[in-house]
């Protein structure tokens, strides 16, 4: 494997092999029933839809319409499915389960629930929790809409999470040592102890209930000056407009609180953040070489005038 994309493909294929093996999806008969997996899925659709057509089931399952038609015909021959013409369109055939078909589905459903239940019971509570959370995430990835970025105010536990995530990310991406974590923790502790809603604010960015970024508005030492602090965005949320939303929200709040100027400190290594500040109207007002977090860096001060 030479690229991250190749590794992603291998990971998903490995999951697919494990999943199909553990659930017995490759068995000729599904869960010991007289049905194959595709037949079982078609039977499920018939049981959970009102008068569907074969084409409806084919679209829902992404199966070849001819395959669905052949399966429905076999179900008819076994007395599991009844077919009638649509009152609205004589050429359309509506499908429904017979009493025998209903009993067959009930037996299959009970068997499937039992098999999945046994699988879950074989796992420890920690494994089970991880499996179910992953199942929800996979369903959302395939069927959910584009995740929405939501900004909220702080909740208990957020300060520790922000310090931890930033320290982990900057260590991973830039090799920074624990000095940055200590700095972030001090900034957050000071913010909490001195918080004044008339002068300070903070936002957590969330996607699907998960924290993916943060920003803090803190009053400065000079009258009329506020500071933008601790902006960050999780790697997999970059490109979704999270950073821009956070910065725009912070600027708007600083104006609403009557600040005349908004300042921030950063380093040149954080190039994406610097581009974001420049687009928002900040101007870089000073640079100073420094040794921080185990590296030789260049500090920068950026400033944005909030009043005409």
From TrEMBL:
InterPro entries according to UniProt: Acyl_CoA_acyltransferase, GNAT_dom, HTH_MarR-typ, NAT_camello-type, WH-like_DNA-bd_sf, WH_DNA-bd_sf
Species this chain originates from: Azospirillum argentinense
Enzyme's top EC category: transferase
Stretches assigned to the HTH marR-type domain: 5-140
UniProt-recorded name of the protein: GNAT family N-acetyltransferase
Signal peptide start-end: none
GO molecular function, one term: acyltransferase activity
Keywords from the UniProt entry: Acyltransferase, Transferase
SMART domains assigned: HTH_MARR
Domain (N-acetyltransferase): residue spans on this chain: 149-307
Pfam families recorded: Acetyltransf_1, MarR_2
Entry's EC annotation: 2.3.1.-
PROSITE patterns recorded: GNAT, HTH_MARR_2
């Amino acid at each position: 494997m030479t690229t991250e994309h190749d590794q992603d493909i291998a990971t998903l294929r490995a999951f697919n092999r494990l999943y199909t093996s553990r659930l017995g999806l490759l068995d000729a008969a599904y869960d010991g029933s007289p049905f194959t997996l595709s037949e079982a899925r078609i039977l499920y659709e018939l049981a959970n839809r009102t008068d569907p057509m074969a084409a409806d089931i084919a679209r829902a399952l992404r199966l070849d319409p001819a395959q669905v038609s052949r399966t429905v015909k076999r179900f008819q021959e076994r007395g599991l499915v009844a077919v009638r013409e649509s009152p609205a369109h004589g050429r359309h055939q509506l499908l429904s389960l017979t009493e025998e078909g209903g009993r067959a589905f009930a037996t299959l459903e009970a068997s499937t629930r039992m098999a999945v239940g046994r699988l879950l019971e074989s796992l420890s509570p920690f494994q089970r929790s991880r499996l179910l959370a992953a199942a929800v995430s996979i369903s959302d990835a395939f069927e959910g809409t584009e995740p929405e970025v939501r900004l909220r105010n702080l909740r208990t536990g957020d300060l520790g999470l922000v310090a931890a995530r930033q320290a982990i990310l900057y260590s991973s991406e830039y090799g920074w040592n624990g000095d940055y974590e200590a700095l972030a923790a001090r900034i957050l502790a000071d913010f909490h102890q001195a918080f004044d809603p008339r002068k300070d604010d903070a936002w957590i960015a969330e996607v699907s209930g998960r924290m993916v970024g943060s920003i803090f508005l803190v009053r400065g030492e000079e009258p009329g000056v506020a500071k933008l602090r601790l902006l960050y965005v999780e790697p997999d949320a970059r490109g979704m407009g999270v950073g821009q939303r956070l910065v725009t929200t912070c600027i708007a709040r600083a104006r609403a609180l009557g600040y005349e100027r908004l300042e921030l400190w950063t380093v040149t290594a954080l190039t994406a953040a610097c581009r974001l500040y420049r687009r928002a109207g900040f101007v870089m007002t000073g640079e100073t070489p420094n040794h921080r977090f185990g590296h030789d860096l260049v500090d920068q001060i950026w400033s944005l005038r909030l009043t005409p």
